[in-house]
Amino acid sequence: MSDELIELLDTAIYKEIASEAFYIAGQRKTQDEGARVLMKELAEEERKHSQLLKGIKDKGLKGSRSLNQVPNLLISEYLTGAETVEGAGLQDTLVFAMKREQQSVEFYAKLMSLMRDEAAKRLCERLVHEELQHKFRLEILYDDLFYKEN
User: Fold this and answer.
1) What is the mean pLDDT of residues 98-106?
2) Residue 31 in contact with residue 89, Cβ under 8 Å?
């Protein structure tokens, strides 16, 4: 495994652990039960993601798989606010989480453009895909909760 790939994995693992800790701490910063449940689920997703990355670091990156196109509803791109989860309700927590996922997409896409190692580029591509999937699931939930007609 190249040094570049190891450094990428270390960065991604750190990022996932930090996100997990953020959502765990966020649960104590709101009185909204729906927001707490969502942040608990988000923390668990981040924990699973860091474990997956640790597994790749330990066992290596196996082959390349085909990545399907992930729809982008562009919901978070048009919403403002949600700078923090402190005191946030479910709606603001969802907006915050969608924006955070979009930032991760942009982060890994930028890293991919900087990588020289092909395995590191493939991993960045997979990470972009994973973050897009997370954002899409949050957008669907937001749409279901706040935009569906009665």
Assistant:
1) 93
2) no
